[in-house]
Specification:
The chain has 465 residues and is α+β, with helices and mostly antiparallel strands. The protein contains 14 helices and ten strands. It has a four-stranded antiparallel β-sheet, with no helix packed on it.
Length: 465
């Protein structure tokens, strides 16, 4: 083919060459370190559920008292140690009258000696019992039990002693609850020795209230007229009441403020102190590092309870007074070495990285290197440490309040509530179950969240997925 003369080429002599380019498409979007950690945390069901529980506890603590407006110190004397599932009805009765002016039932003439009988229906106002006289008795002892007495004659609580009066009746008005009681009478011989007791009397007590009290306590609408025998419902206590008639739900809310305040504020301060101390020791290294860590080992060896007592004396906290501030100071002063040792180990590893050496060559100062590079790169470990420190502080507060060295009544805290509930554990277990359950759920939730954060913030886990 002959060559075309220069300058006479047609316009279509050169055509653009198109080539298909294969562009690599990413199968997953580019994520930052924290975005990737959040995605892995969401895939951990236990950690995510624990996070929801912690948020619910914070709502319960901060917003709960705004919704449930009940004073945690107010007492409902009609519902003392009342379980949440107990009956709240009360029968309207006339005001209390002395036994001499009230009609009573008489015993049958052919009744056997020491035959107990109710003189009138048993109510929370009074239980009145009568019995036939024992010919050889010089007096009587009256007992009340919440269980049927056995062959060992475990008759229960002694209520009264009738000596030489020949009286064969007794009125019980001592802390009567709407429940079943067993009354027993023991005759005394001429020398005052106890004789064989009579058969126990089973008594079912009915809760009653007067019209005046029902109106005064707001159980009925103003202007409502009540007749004897009408039934009213007492105030609602969703979690029941304690041994003084105080609302357990309100006390749990206010107690959560104390427990979570100590459990969050104290770890925050001693973790910050441990971060600064450990990062300084790890960055400086050498003899300074050795000296600082030996002091940290010395602090770890100090007895916590001894220093708690010393701080209470220093703050002027006497017996029976709440020691919230000494507890905070003791936790902050004695709990930081664990965080310091952990952060120091991370700093020793990070300071050998290439980007730290490059920053030094560019003239970065020590303070800048620690605050800008080292501490942010240990933030994942710090968060995990904080989540594990919170339940430890909550448990420490609960333990100290339980033994009477932390928060003291009437200030509510979960630990002091457990201490109060222990006294009535056998008869009214709900007073111990609810605060113990809140402590267990909170500690478990923070531990599971810390375990999930440890996996989510581990950079090595990211390369395996």
């Amino acid at each position: 083919m002959s060559a075309l003369p220069a300058g006479n080429l047609p316009d279509n002599a050169f055509e653009p060459v198109t080539a298909e380019r294969r562009v690599q498409q990413l199968t997953r979007p580019s994520l930052s370190y924290w975005q990737d950690a959040w995605l892995r945390l969401k895939r951990n069901g236990r950690a995510l559920m624990s996070l929801y529980i912690i948020v619910a506890l914070l709502v319960f603590t901060l917003i709960g008292p705004l919704v449930w407006r009940v004073d945690p110190a107010s007492q409902d004397v009609d519902q003392v140690s009342q379980a949440p599932w107990a009956d709240r009805t009360a029968v309207v009765v006339p005001p209390y009258r002395s036994w001499d002016s009230a009609p009573t039932a008489e015993l049958q003439a052919d009744s056997k000696p020491l035959t107990l009988q109710l003189a009138e229906p048993a109510t929370t106002q009074a239980v009145r019992v009568t019995w036939t006289a024992e010919p050889q008795a010089s007096g009587y002892l009256i007992y009340r039990n919440i269980m049927l007495p056995g062959p060992e004659h475990d008759l229960g609580l002694p209520l009264g002693e009738l000596i030489g009066s020949g009286q064969t009746r007794f009125e019980d008005r001592l802390d009567l609850d709407p429940m079943r009681y067993y009354y027993s009478v023991v005759p005394l011989d001429a020398n005052g020795a106890e004789m064989a007791p009579g058969p126990p009397l089973q008594v079912d007590v009915t809760r009653v209230i007067t019209e005046e009290l029902a109106i005064t306590r707001g159980l009925v609408h103003e202007g409502t007229k009540l007749a004897d025998g009408d039934v009213v419902r007492l105030a609602l206590h969703p979690f029941g009441t304690d041994y003084l008639g105080r609302d357990l739900l309100a006390r749990l809310m206010y107690g959560a403020r104390v427990s979570l305040f100590i459990g969050i504020v104290a770890p925050f301060f001693f973790v910050i102190l441990g971060i600064l101390y450990g990062s300084t020791a790890g960055f400086l290294g050498g003899a300074v590092d050795s000296l600082l860590m030996r002091f940290a080992d010395f602090v770890i060896a100090l007895p916590f309870l001894l220093f708690m007592i010393l701080f209470k004396i220093a703050f002027g906290i006497g017996p029976g007074e709440s020691g919230i501030m000494p507890l905070l100071v003791a936790l902050v002063v004695l709990s930081w070495p664990g965080t310091a040792r952990l952060v120091r180990g991370q700093i020793l590893q990070i300071r050998e990285e290439a980007y730290i050496a490059a920053s030094r060559l560019l003239g970065a100062k020590t303070q800048y290197l620690i605050l800008r590079h080292m501490i942010p790169n240990t933030l994942g470990v710090i968060l995990v440490t904080l989540t594990f420190a919170v339940p430890s502080a909550i448990f420490t507060e609960a333990f100290l309040s339980f033994i009477g060295m932390g928060v003291a009544p009437p200030t509510p805290s979960w630990g002091s509530m457990c201490n109060d509930g222990l006294k009535t554990m056998l008869t009214h277990p709900h007073e111990l179950i609810f605060p113990a359950l809140f402590i267990s759920i909170t500690v478990l939730a923070f531990n599971l969240l810390g375990d999930g954060l440890r996996d989510a913030l581990d950079a090595r886990m990211r390369s395996r997925e």
